[in-house]
Specification:
This protein is an alpha+beta fold. The chain has helices spanning 10-26, 65-77, 94-100, 135-149, 153-159, 210-224, 239-245, 263-266, and strands at 32-35, 39-43, 54-57, 83-87, 104-114, 129-131, 170-177, 180-190, 193-201, 229-233, 248-257. The chain is built from 8 helices and 11 strands.
Length: 268
């Protein structure tokens, strides 16, 4: 399949995603990071977080034989499962090298941006979307995430922290159905762009417009504070909604696992 030319917002979008990982995972007390001119190796402190334990490239030619060797040695030290992360429109040559070395795709996510007012989609549910302002609200965000994504304590304690309540650059959004938390989302500011993360709805509240309400509210909030451009990594379930809102795809972010050797290599 031919790879489309790079979008003018691709570099900023990838930098925004990188900042999210830096703020949520690389600054965790147990995290270990190694940074070169062209890539970052990041161990989250949890052996199982294959998305946050990664080789993250900062340049189109970052994924090389040497980088892969260093990554393998680095993560072997922590017996950790990990991934090479690359975006096809940013570094199209990476796929052939990784395939040649036996790397396999764990998953991929469309990288999408919105740089115009969102399409005002109709919603059936008229509840108010709030910004989390208390520890109780953060607990409710975790409840939604647990059910919507299957996240556990290790992820939740990193991406939903009490210190976020006093951080103007991190915003957690909630939508309640009565007293029950039904849907959530998170925004991480990165300069003139914002990253949208963890847009999720609990099972019993799906297909009722809850995610649409949350997205429209947070996008209105961003535009009101002078941030009209946002980026997100879409799930298969969420991508149709984002497309309807006006997001466009600018690449695919691929998480590539190293060649399988033995689970004992990663988990002792």
């Amino acid at each position: 399949m031919a790879i489309p030319p790079a979008d003018p917002l691709l570099g900023a979008a990838l930098a925004c995603v990188d900042q999210f990982y830096a703020r949520m995972f690389r600054d965790w007390p147990d995290a270990v990071n190694r940074v070169s001119d062209t890539w970052t190796l990041s161990y989250s402190g949890d052996q199982h977080l294959t998305g946050a334990n990664h080789l993250w490239p900062h340049a189109p030619d970052a994924v090389t034989e040497r980088a892969l060797r260093e990554a393998e040695e680095f993560f072997d030290t922590y017996h950790a499962a990990w991934s090479v992360v690359y975006t096809d429109t940013f570094m199209p040559q990476a796929a052939a090298l990784l395939d040649r070395h036996g790397y396999y795709r764990r998953w991929h996510s469309p990288l999408m941006v919105l740089d115009a007012p969102p399409t005002r989609l109709p919603t059936r549910f008229g509840g108010e979307v709030i910004r989390a302002s208390s520890v109780k609200h953060l607990d409710d965000v975790r409840r939604v995430m647990n059910e919507a994504f299957g996240t556990g304590t290790s992820v939740n304690q990193r991406v939903v922290r009490a210190e976020h309540l006093g951080d103007p650059g991190i915003r957690h959004y909630l939508l309640y159905a009565g007293r029950e938390p039904a849907a959530c989302a998170m925004v991480a500011m990165c300069g003139e762009m914002a990253g949208v993360w963890n847009v999720g709805t609990r099972y019993r509240y799906r297909r009722q417009g809850f995610a649409t309400r949350v997205m429209l509210a947070l996008l209105d909030d961003l535009r009101a504070c002078g941030c009209p451009v946002s980026v997100l990594m879409a799930s298969p379930e969420g991508q149709p909604l984002y497309q309807q809102l006006g997001y466009r795809e600018i690449g695919n972010v691929n998480y590539m696992g190293p060649p399988f050797v033995s689970t004992s290599r990663y988990f002792h």
